[in-house]
């Protein structure tokens, strides 16, 4: 029965909806409504998280963003063209301490995101990332790692 399902040519192909997992024990870092810095040179300075894409939580609990998560952000401060726009972004730094599988604990001095160009690709809008980014970002978002200065 199982083999029949897999070989059926009329079966719809599953969409690739899952993001690659990160190699860290990520903790709840940022709630919806959190105000964070934009760590790239896209023109946004300060953004507010309005949604988390692809996150899973217990029923009845508010969704939260962790390191490496894709989020929807609203630009609060920045260039006039970007202000009041809702864009996609990736969380690259968290103040909240999280544990890597090696046992070391990592926390940064601020919360920061990198703005993405569009929904489909993971290409960043800016050409440079200010400050360090977490090593876990390299596994899920290699395009952001290419423009980052320091990976911790």
How would you summarize this macromolecular structure in one to three sentences?
The protein is mainly beta and 152 residues long. 11% of the residues lie in helices and 36% in strands.
Name a few traits of the molecule.
152 residues; mainly beta; Ribosomal Protein L14; five-stranded mixed β-barrel; three-stranded antiparallel β-sheet; 12 strands
Largest sheet: 5 strands, mixed, barrel
Shape: globular
Beta-strand segment tally: 12
End-to-end C-alpha gap: 48 Å
Q: Low-confidence runs (pLDDT<50, min 5 residues)?
A: 12-16
Percent of sequence in beta strands: 35-45%
Structural features, described:
Helices cover 11% and strands 36% of the residues. It is built from three helices and twelve strands. The strands form four sheets. Strands 3-4-6-7-10 form a five-stranded mixed beta barrel. A three-stranded antiparallel beta sheet has the order 1-8-9, with no helix packed on it. The protein has a two-stranded antiparallel ribbon with strand order 2-5. A hairpin with a 7-residue loop joins strand 6 and strand 7. The protein is globular, with a radius of gyration of 17 Å.
Layout of secondary structure:
Elements: H1 2-7, E1 24-25, E2 30-31, E3 35-38, E4 44-53, E5 64-65, E6 70-78, E7 86-93, E8 98-100, E9 105-106, E10 112-115, E11 129-133, H2 136-140, H3 142-147, E12 148-151
Parallel strand pairs: 3-10, 11-12
Antiparallel strand pairs: 1-8, 2-5, 3-4, 4-6, 6-7, 7-10, 8-9
């Amino acid at each position: 029965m199982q083999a029949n399902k897999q070989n059926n040519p009329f079966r719809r192909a599953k969409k690739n909806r899952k993001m690659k997992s990160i190699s860290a024990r990520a903790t709840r870092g940022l709630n919806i409504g959190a105000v964070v810095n934009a760590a790239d040179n896209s023109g946004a300075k300060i953004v507010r998280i309005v949604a988390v894409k692809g996150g899973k939580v217990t029923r009845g609990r508010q969704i939260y963003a962790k390191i490496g998560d894709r989020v929807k952000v609203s630009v609060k401060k920045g260039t006039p063209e970007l202000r009041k726009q809702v864009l996609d972004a990736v969380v690259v730094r968290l103040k909240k301490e999280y544990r890597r599988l090696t046992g070391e604990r990592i926390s940064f001095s601020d919360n920061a995101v990198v703005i993405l160009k569009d929904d489909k690709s993971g290409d960043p809008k800016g050409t440079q990332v200010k400050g360090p980014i977490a090593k876990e970002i390299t596994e899920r978002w290699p395009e952001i790692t290419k423009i980052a200065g320091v990976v911790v």
